[in-house]
Each structure stands twice: as structure tokens, then as C-alpha cells.
Amino acid sequence: MQGNFTTRLKRRLKNYRLGMALSEVKNFVLYTPKKINNLQRRFISLKPKRPFQGNVLLCYINKGFFLKPGEAVPNEHTNNWESLQIANTFRELGYQVDVISENNEHFVPAKHYAFFVGNRINFDRIAEFLNEDCVKILHIDTAHWLFHNTAEHRRLLALQQRRGFTLPTRRSLRPNLAIEHADYATILGNDFTIETYRYANKPMYRVPISTPALYPWPEDKDFGRSRKHFLWLSSAGFVHKGLDLVLEAFAEMPDYDLTVCGPLDEEKNFTRAYYDMLYQTPNVHTEGWIDIGSSRFLELAKNCIGVIYPTCSEGGGGSVISCMHAGLIPIVSREASVDVNESFGLVLKECSVNEIKASIKRIFNLSAQELERMARNAWDFARANHTKEKFAEEYRRVISAVMASPSNRESAVAKKATPGRLYQAAPSVSDTAVR
Q1: How far apart are CA 362 and CA 366, in angstroms?
Q2: Which of 26, 150, 187, 308 is the least crowded, having the fewest Cβ atoms under 10 Å away?
Q3: Contact 104/44 with Cβ under 8 angstroms?
Q4: Does pLDDT of 397 surpass 90?
Q5: What is the DSSP string of 228-240?
Q6: What is the C-alpha separation between 420 and 283, in angstroms, rounded?
């Protein structure tokens, strides 16, 4: 009885100014130290490796800058290592690099910066505080937010009409004006991603997305036996990334096997809606989240012939690249933003359930020799174009081209970029800055 009275008194008190004030004091005492020490609020300044040329502000993934001695760079996404390499590139060119998290909404620049590098998050806010002659470089790692969000909504609406239930958005991007505030942009994706930003008429340079791990060619793989086994591998945002379509396709194809790798615990709504296909369909094997650096991933890749990824919007398709490194044939949408041609993969045109089924059968009907040839071509392509070494080489080449532009010495306003050498993976990508 006493407990109920106390509870009601506390609830009533919260409606009055005194109660609100006490609640704010409590929150300040309990949570402010945690917020201050949170990784998103941490700041680190890295000294140059050559004579000092100026300061650079990097606003991107900062997890890799605060690792404990001996701790490996997390491999759940390529951006952890790539952020480290971006900083090292500028340090090698003589710049001191200040690093903050992309989610740090409290940081305000307090020094003169020669360059500012950031992704879509926080870019326009920070750009407003920078010195006028700072060169602002947007690091593009997704399609434009308007295209990206619209594409996801279309997928969710199609799901609703097709299956009769509604699922919430999972990959929505916060609106921003990053490209409008940028002087230049580096871009991880291919011509698909580039097209979503072309309206801004800013110089854009392709840089190849890296990969967290390299794998040897699977010499003893049985391509005849693996022809009926396929893999879906991705992070959260399952409707966005086409898992619903893939599950529906394989549910109608009992003679073909699908293995699902992703953080299913993060999307309870989806797993409830597709529980029967995920856990009660004999030819669907739900693995859950998997470390792509593990022996288990290599075991799955060895047993599968291809990766299927009908996503609706990406900035570089890192999971597909990892699978190609493991010798899998990619079956992807154009929106996966991975350069794929007929010598080593298939590009879906409409990403319908029927098209996915037809693509699976098309791969299955190829000879073992043809399957091995395509898989080897995919592996060779990934090795030639998507490694840490290639990213480092091309990123430095692009930054050097930007630094050499005469417009940088004159003004940071209305720049006209000097063409620089781009990552060239497909005939449609020229060796010049993309405009």
C-alpha cells in the first residue's frame, strides 16, 4: 500500500516544475559522465609524419582510433579501417589530423583547418563553422538520402501490398545538405551512386571500397555440388536489402538451398513476419550474424556458389565485395553499386521474386567448368580492385590531385577541380573526375 502511494506521488510530482527540476538534476548527475566519456564525444589529434603543412578535421568513424594495444580493427564494416587510412593519408602528407565521430553534434571547430573530410552525417553543420578557405571534401558512403529513403519506402510499400502487413523503416537517413556544402567528393560506389549526387555538379572522385579480409582461392571447391546453394549476407535493414524477396523466392524453390547471414535479433518485426520462411522452411538455413574473418564464413562460402543481394540502395556493396573475395558469384541489383559484368555475375533489372528465381536457375544450369570460371573471375576482380592497398593508393592519388588544384591556392569558393586518376573498374568509368 505504502509502495503504491509513493509511486503515485512520484508520478504526480513529475508534472510540476519542482518535479521536472529534480528529474533534470538526477539525469545530469547519473548520465552526464557517461555522455562525456561516450565514444561519440571523444576527440583525438594525430601528429603529422612529415613537416607540418596544416590542420585537417576528419569527421567519420572513430572507433579504430581508440583501440586498446593489440586490439584488432573491427571488421564488421570497411569504414572502420578506411577512416584510419584517410587520417594516415593526410598525416603522410604533413598534416595534423583532428578526429571526431560522425555523430558528434557538440564539436565546434576552434582552429584554422586546411581541409575538412566527413561523410553525410554532421557535414553541413560543421561546414558552417569552418574558416572560409577550408577545402571541404565529402566522403560519400551511401546513395543520396532522398533516393535512399524513397527506395526503402517503395520496398516497404510493395511488401505491404504483396504480403498484407506493414514493417517500419530500418535504414532511413537523416536529411542533410552535405553535397551542397562540399567543394569536392570522394565516392565509394559506382555510377549508380554517382548519379544520385550528380545534380549538385560537384567534382566527384571514385575511390574503391576496401575489404576487411582477404581469402585464398578455394582450390578444392566442388562447383558441381555447390551449384544449388546460395548465400544472403548483410547487416540490418532486411527489406531494404531484399531479404524478404529472397526468402519468398526460395520458399517457392524447394530444390535450391539458401543460407541467411545477418543480425536477425535486431529486427524482431521482420523475424516474426518471416518466421516460417526463416526457421520452418527446409531449404532455408538461418545462420544469423557471422564474422567474415572466421573459418565458419569460409566454410559457408565453400559450400555456396553465389551471393544474392537485391538491395534497393547502397554506396558500395561491401558485403558483396567480401563474398567475391571468397569466390562467390554475385547476383545483385544495380543499386548494390558494385561493378558486375556477365563474365562473373548477374545484375538484376527489377528485383522481383520471379526474376530472382530465374537468376538462381540460370546459375544452376551452367556447367561446373563455367561456374568455376565465373567464380574465379569474381575473385580476380575483387583482388585487383577492392583491397586495403588499392584504397590507400587511390585515396592518396585523389587527395594529391585536389591539393594540386590551382583553385585551392586561390579560393575555396566556386572550385573547378583538376581531373585526377580514378579507380577504373568498368568501361563506363573514365579516368577523369566525375562531374
Answers
A1: 7
A2: 26
A3: no
A4: yes
A5: TEEEEE--S-TTT
A6: 49
> For residue 285, which amino acid is it?
H
Average pLDDT of the chain, as a whole number: 89
Cβ partners under 8 Å of residue 305, min gap 6:
223, 226, 227, 228, 229, 230, 328, 329, 363, 364, 371, 375
Residue 299 phi/psi, 5-degree rounding, is: -65, -45
**Domains of the chain: residue spans and CATH:** 42-210+389-410 (3.40.50), 223-385 (3.40.50.2000)
User: Looking at residues 57-86, what average pLDDT do you find?
Assistant: 90
pLDDT (mean) for 367-375: 98
How crowded is residue 41: how many other Cβ atoms within 10 Å of its Cβ? 16
Give me the phi and psi of 260, to 5 degrees please.
-110, 120
Q: Is the pLDDT confidence value at 60 over 70?
A: yes
**DSSP 8-state class, residue 190:** -
Contacts of 196 (CB under 8 A, 6+ apart): 143, 144, 146, 147, 148
Residue matched to cell numbers 583553385: 407
pLDDT digits (tens, 9 = 90+) for 102-131: 999 999 999 999 999 999 889 999 999 999
Percentage, residues of the chain above pLDDT 90: 78
